[in-house]
Amino acid sequence: MAEMATQTSPTRSVDVKFDVELRKVSKVYNGETAVRGIDLSIRRGEFFSILGPSGCGKTTTLRMVAGFEHPSAGDILIRDRSMLNVPPYKRPANTVFQSYALFGHMTVWENIAFGLKIQRCSRSEIQDRVRDALKLVKLESLANRFPAQLSGGQQQRVAVARALINRPAVLLLDEPLGALDLKLRKEMQVELSTLHRELGITFVMVTHDQEEALSLSDRIAIMNLGKVEQVGTPEQVYDRPQTAFVANFIGDTNLLRGKIEGAHPQTLWIRTETGIKLTVQQSANPLTSGWVMVSVRPEKIQIALAPVGDTANCFEGRLQDVMYLGTHVHCFVQLKSGDRITVRQPTSFSLPSADAPLYVHWAAADSLALSES
User: Fold this and answer.
1) CA 159 – CA 139 distance, rounded (Å)
2) What stretches in the chain show pLDDT beneath 70?
């Protein structure tokens, strides 16, 4: 069962260690609340992502963990120690920024060694640790180049190496792949995942890219309007979203608003605003009455050329549009009720003509009713 948004902090156990904890943390700018009393507990060694749209408070949250912003209320702990009065450079956390923030007048070697020189480490220690960092990010042959002579991906690796050189307990990643093109971003996702596995330290990443968060993370916190809506594994937030916002933000979904007309321990019967009757599997938090949003993922919906009698949800419509996406197609179907449904089909699927009637259908277990409140 997915973790509730109101219970985002896991129960403390002697068997679970937390590297980062946020306790009722809020941030107010000029009377405007950017972060609203959030609780998060990030386990030691996990890859944790904070995901949400622009302006949801995710970057502000990361900056408070890093020490670049101070919370207006609440507490932030790293390795069980409060960070409220600890400056950024004394925290056991380093940040990789989207802009990389490399020193253009320094070589790759000098950029990576900078933090160790500030700490006045010995020359031999600097040599050994920079050499290890370069090997880790596969940049040994580029040690004497300047940032302007590197590709975007290579600059990203230098930024990661520089952040890791001080051996932080936590690596903070602020939209680390946002400046890269699609192909390079995919490659760097693999590299980040490999780095995390090899290093074994805690990664906390902020991103607005759902696919990136789903593919890299052990757990994800989805933020909206300064609040955490849900925390869970990628499977939990995708397959069992707890709010309509999470269902709509994570991947593609069809949302139909309706009112519960009947409830059973295993089943809900819902009539939508447009008059169609839906049969939905009862959720883990049983609903019995009121208005709800029904979520149906496009890949859960099938298309048939004739009514399917043994399916609870089967509705007539017409093919309105098709979007080719390489590995699959999105079919946009206009139902007789007026509802517009998106259906995901393999590219090999034989589509009917636009004027031919078709039927979309899905099982009750493949839809989810979510409370509007």
Assistant:
1) 12
2) 1-16, 179, 373
